[in-house]
């Protein structure tokens, strides 16, 4: 692996900035399984919170945990902290505000934060970078959230960190402790649906977009395009939230008006992302220079704010 690439993934973004908690992060466990399980005990996934209030929650494997959440998580607390805790320092600060002990296996349900996989991945990547370990978040799809795996995959974020001794990227899912038939802390590439492969297979007719769900029920080629942008930006150390959208397609209507040339541009991007290390320089060039791929809208930032795009 080129030193330039590893050095790049040691750098932080506004999201993975570890400086306020650098020494604290360095004091956390070095063992990946121990660290990932520790993070799992600090959070409640948004879907877990929802499921805890469903009458049929008993059908889920973690029935006891769901009952505990329903009985102890305050009704007046945020139902999803994704809206406000966009960065690793923000997540960590809130955890300390709720429990001065910081990251602890004994954290009470009412003191946890409600965040989804993107946010847990950002937090883990930040901790690893603070420890001097190259790390990057990845956006894609997975179907291992329950024992009964089906053909439907749900959008998901994981972390890759570089194992220097073995000279390879290690795939880690720290979002939850699933009952899976593989090592969650070092799982094989085939267990995760990489969005670049999914996009190209759907575009070529080898796969169908109905098999891939965003959130709990959204699907479509536009959702695959969003995931492609999320993964591209994450590969460039810019782990944008799913609350953000490319200016060129921040609605289904805009997406449907993309030209064939623009679709080809997405195909070309996905092709490069099939091997992000081999194509690192090309991806970096696009990220630095292609405004079509780089400019992002947020809840407070719309098309009219990107004047530099409108004048070209």
Instruction: Indicate the structural class.
Output: alpha/beta
The biggest sheet amounts to: 5 strands, mixed
Beta-strand segment tally: 9
- Poorly predicted regions: none
Q: Give helix % range.
A: 40-55%
Globally, the shape reads globular
How far apart the termini lie comes to 38 Å
Total of DSSP H or I helical runs spanning 4+ residues:
14
Question: Beta-strand level of the residues, as a percent range?
Answer: 5-15%
Rounded mean pLDDT score:
91
Radius of gyration: 19 Å
What string gives the helices and strands in order?
A: HHHEHHHEHEEEEHEHEHHHHEH
Features:
two-stranded parallel ribbon
Describe the protein's topology.
Layout: H1 3-8, H2 22-27, H3 32-40, E1 43-44, H4 46-52, H5 63-72, H6 88-98, E2 113-114, H7 117-130, E3 135-142, E4 153-163, E5 168-172, E6 193-194, H8 195-204, E7 212-213, H9 221-235, E8 245-246, H10 252-256, H11 260-273, H12 280-289, H13 291-294, E9 296-297, H14 307-310
Parallel strand pairs: 1-2, 4-7
Antiparallel strand pairs: 3-4, 3-6, 4-5, 8-9
Descriptive notes:
This protein has 312 residues and is an alpha/beta fold. The chain contains 14 helices and nine strands. A hairpin with a 4-residue loop joins strand 4 and strand 5 (168-172). The longest helix is centred in the last third of the chain and has 15 residues, at 221-235. The chain is globular. The protein starts with a helix and ends with a helix.
């Amino acid at each position: 692996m080129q030193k330039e690439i590893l050095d790049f993934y040691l750098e932080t973004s506004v999201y993975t900035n570890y400086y306020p908690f650098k020494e604290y992060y360095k004091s956390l466990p070095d063992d990946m399984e121990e660290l990932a399980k520790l993070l799992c005990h600090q959070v409640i996934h948004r879907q877990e919170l929802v499921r805890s209030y469903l009458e049929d929650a008993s059908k889920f494997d973690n029935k006891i945990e769901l009952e505990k959440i329903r009985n102890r998580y305050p009704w007046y607390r945020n139902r999803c902290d994704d809206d406000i805790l966009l960065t690793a320092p923000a997540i960590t600060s809130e955890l300390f505000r709720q429990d001065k002990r910081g990251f602890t296996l004994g954290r009470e349900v009412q003191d946890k934060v409600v965040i989804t996989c993107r946010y847990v991945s950002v937090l883990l990547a930040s901790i690893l970078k603070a420890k001097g370990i190259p790390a990057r978040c990845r956006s894609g799809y997975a179907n291992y959230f329950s024992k009964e795996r089906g053909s439907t995959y749900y959008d998901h974020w994981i972390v890759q960190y570089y194992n220097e001794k073995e000279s390879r990227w290690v795939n880690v899912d720290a979002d939850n402790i699933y009952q899976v038939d593989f090592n969650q802390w070092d799982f094989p590439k085939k267990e995760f649906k990489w969005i670049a492969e999914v996009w190209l297979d759907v575009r070529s007719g080898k796969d169908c977009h109905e098999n891939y769900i965003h959130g709990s029920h959204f699907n479509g080629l536009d959702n695959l395009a969003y995931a492609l942008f999320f993964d591209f930006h994450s590969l460039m150390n810019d782990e944008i939230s799913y609350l953000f959208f490319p200016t060129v397609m921040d609605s289904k209507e805009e997406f449907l008006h993309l030209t064939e040339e623009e679709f080809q541009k997405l195909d070309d991007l996905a092709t490069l992302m099939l091997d992000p290390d081999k194509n690192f320089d090309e991806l970096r060039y696009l990220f630095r220079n292609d405004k079509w791929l780089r400019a992002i809208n947020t809840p407070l930032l719309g098309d009219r704010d990107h004047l530099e795009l409108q004048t070209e």
